[in-house]
Specification:
The chain is built from 18 helices and 15 strands. By secondary structure, the chain is of the alpha+beta class. About 60% of the residues are buried.
Length: about 525
């Protein structure tokens, strides 16, 4: 491929408004607090309530509540105390503390029989991403000033399933505006900081989730992924993140697909079993859905160590922008580990994938989705949006989206499907694809801000989603596993992708890797 073709592909991807996010009130810290580095924590874990809380995953918290070892209000206050103590990280944008406290108090008085009869995660603290999801009676800002007073009149289907599982939702977590970049920074709330290095980004667009989990505020948090927004922040913060197959986790009820199926909901967690449990409790079709991969017993997969997997290793940035040596080292290290576990790993070639054409079309779809969401809000409140209510790059993308045609949208879906066929043919020969999660280390804050000259942004943006976005465009599941830390102590994840509906295979391998190379006890030094 010529250098000119590569450059044109990059520009089509970015100029159109390519995004990473999930779907189409005043924060706890706010933009001013986030603007100063400060210190990571106002208190050490030992000085906060329930010191052992940060060592528990959600599965363990649920078990202890069920046994009566701790009360729901105790673990909720432990989470809130850490959200406040680690406020300089700027993970929480919309707190629902009083709602959650009321729910926890109602659960506290339960006897043993009642506790045993309650849902699997009854009383476990949880938080939603502040993007593309609705909790009735609360605000979802989408990281945008135009939506800062947008109160939901319904619960998303996924929220209904989380509540049915017993989760106690106490906040929403930061996202960049409409999830349009791989760093969680916005004019509305400021920058969310990486607990491993406060001058660096926690990733995006689920950067509030990754920062909160890495800091120990929560063991797991809701996240979403339209081009890498679960896997990228998981990689940057040393966590586990799995983007599911298109259609596995509900997106409705008002819209059953996000960005023509690019977007998916799930969680970021410290433990593989938490992700498996949360997916087990939330997967499956909702009324009106017509796309549904095979569902599987993901908890059983935790105990089914895979043998002899055929794994293709891919390490080339298809934007032609290169890959950081530490990211290559991370994937090589993962390949060596997989080989030691009895799997077969060999290099593969993805030159048949129409990646640059796909990437350009992705920009068309995501910018159009953003415009649609804004126009719906304009109709709902009876006024037009103003330029000063948006990040400059997003505003430019929306203006460009007004010129897109139906032909361009249909062409986008067609090229995504063509790419899906290429990968399906590859998966006929391989069980999984292994690659770096990102092509660069966690970026410095400001490098991927949507409030900067476009050309400066564009030079760095193609390093974020070169490996992740292809699996959004083709609807395939992929996960980032925290198997490497750089020489300077920065987490670097590796990505594994599977065929459509292959979540059980990913969970089984992740559990095997977690046992062979544990990561849950690794803590950001500033918070240890």
């Amino acid at each position: 491929m010529s250098e000119q073709a590569v450059e044109q592909g990059r520009r089509d991807f970015l100029k159109a408004g390519a995004a990473l996010g999930g779907a189409a009130a005043v924060g706890l810290s706010g933009a001013k607090a986030a603007g100063a580095a400060g210190t990571a924590a106002a208190a050490t874990p030992a000085a906060l309530p329930l010191p052992e809380y940060e060592q528990w995953d959600a599965t363990e918290i649920a078990l202890r509540i069920r046994r009566g070892d701790v009360k729901p209000s105790e673990v909720l206050e432990a989470a809130i105390a850490r959200a406040e103590a680690y406020a300089a990280i700027n993970a929480v944008t919309v707190p629902h503390f009083d709602l959650a406290r009321e729910a926890a108090r109602a659960l506290d008085a339960a006897g043993q029989a009642e506790r045993a009869a309650r849902p699997a995660l009854s009383g476990v603290p949880f938080a939603l991403k502040d993007l593309g999801i609705a909790l009735k009676g609360t605000v979802t800002t989408n990281g945008c000033a135009f939506f800062q007073d947008a109160v939901a009149d319904h619960d998303s289907t996924l929220v209904q399933r989380y509540q049915a599982a017993g989760l106690n939702i106490f906040a929403k977590l930061a996202s960049p505006e409409f999830g349009q970049t791989a760093s969680t920074e916005s004019r509305l709330f400021g920058a969310t900081r990486n607990p491993w290095d406060l001058e660096r980004s926690s990733g995006g667009s689920s950067g509030g989730a990754s920062a909160a989990v890495a800091a120990g505020v929560l063991p797991a948090a809701h996240a979403s992924d339209g081009g890498g927004s679960i896997r990228i922040p998981a990689s940057h913060c040393g966590l586990f993140g799995l983007k599911p197959s298109r259609g596995l986790i509900p997106m409705g009820p008002k819209s059953l697909e996000g960005w023509l199926g690019l977007s998916a909901h799930n969680v970021i967690s410290r433990s593989v079993r938490d992700t498996a449990l949360l997916m087990q409790l939330s997967q499956g079709a909702e009324p009106g859905a017509r796309t549904l991969p095979p569902t599987a017993d993901l908890l059983a997969a935790l105990e089914q160590a895979p043998r002899g997997l055929r794994i293709g290793l891919f390490q080339a940035n298809l934007f032609g922008a290169g890959v950081h040596a530490e990211c290559i080292e991370a994937s090589n290290k993962a390949a060596t580990l997989c080989t030691s576990l009895g799997h077969h790993v060999e290099p593969i070639d993805l030159s048949a994938l129409p990646f640059l054409e796909m990437a350009g079309s992705m920009g068309v779809v995501t910018a159009s989705g953003m415009l649609y969401t804004v126009q719906a809000r304009e109709k709902a409140i009876g006024r037009e949006a103003r330029e000063d209510e948006f990040e400059p790059i997003d505003w430019q993308s929306m203006q460009k989206a007004k010129s897109y045609t139906a032909e361009q949208i249909l062409k986008a879906r067609n090229v995504f499907d063509r790419g899906g066929r290429v990968l399906d043919e590859l998966f006929a020969r391989y069980d999984l694809i292994l690659s770096p999660t990102t092509a660069a280390l966690p970026p410095k804050l400001g490098e991927l801000s949507l409030d900067q000259p476009f050309e400066d942004y564009a030079r760095r943006a193609v390093l974020a989603s070169a490996f992740t976005s292809m699996f959004n465009m083709t609807g395939l599941p992929a996960m980032s596993v925290p198997l490497h830390w750089s020489a300077e102590g920065l987490p670097i994840g590796v990505q594994f992708a599977a065929p459509y509906g292959g979540e059980a295979r990913l969970i089984a391998l992740a559990a095997q890797l977690e046992k062979a190379a544990p990561w849950a006890d690794r803590r950001p030094p500033a918070l240890a």
